[in-house]
Amino acid sequence: MKLMLIANDPEVAQYAVQSGVDRVFVDLERNGKVERQGHLDTVISSHSFEDAYKVKKSIADAQMLIRLNPFHDNTKDEVERALDAGADILMIPMFYGREEVEQFCAYVNGRCDVIPLVETAQAMVRLDGIAEVEGITEIYFGLNDLHLALKLDFMFEILSGGLVDYMAGIVKLRGLRFGFGGISRFGSGIVSGELVLGEHARLGSESVILSRAFHGNAKNLQELIANVDLEKEIRQLRLLRRKLIERSPEETEKGRLLFKSKVEEFVKSRRDLVRR
């Protein structure tokens, strides 16, 4: 499983890779993000192309993923700048159909891997055609924006309700890898990282974004080291994933039902709070 950490500090990026992170995620998405997520407790990054240059120099032997803006008039220029910065993977967010992904892949023209980020209702419905686009290397399901698009109360309802199962089935039929959402440290998060990892193992997911719990909101390397033993956390995650993959069908289903019940419990408590 490819573990991704969002970072724009070269020292943090280097330390993350040394600790077992596979991909450093530089987030350049700006357009429309505050409007969509500004009211939520989510991270809205302020990364830059200059950060990307510095990060890549610090992690020469690891992959750098850059998420660009949703498709717009200057997407071609953004693609060129990202490739010049050394991007190994480019991610296109908030698209609505096959045409945007095809044009994005045409701009890339095989010079790096491409991951479409499925996070609109339209993209989910049109996923079968999107997965056929030449140049895609894997697909990622963005649960946060997708749950907003579907007017759900909690992003993990998409997972507990079977929609990720549906999307994963389409992608696997095309022979593509996929990942989804974010994962918290074990023992933390609204739904524990252990249960979320169980769902990744059940579905055959091959990538995940490590949540901010893995860096403790650190602003620099010193704070990160003080807040979290990152190497230990990653080692525990990989060890548990191996065990989860080896579960019996009965154990896997038990884990799915427990995850589903925890999601439903949180949604109910949230609705009860709103009614008060």
TrEMBL record:
GO terms for cellular component: cytoplasm. Keywords: Lyase, Metal-binding. GO terms for molecular function: aldehyde-lyase activity; metal ion binding. Coiled coil: none annotated. InterPro entries: Aldolase/citrate-lyase_domain, HpcH-HpaI_aldolase, Pyrv/PenolPyrv_kinase-like_dom, Pyrv_kinase-like_dom_sf. The keyword Secreted does not apply. It comes from the Bacteria. Residues 5-152 form the HpcH/HpaI aldolase/citrate lyase domain. Belongs to the HpcH/HpaI aldolase family. This is HpcH/HpaI aldolase/citrate lyase family protein. It comes from Cohnella phaseoli.
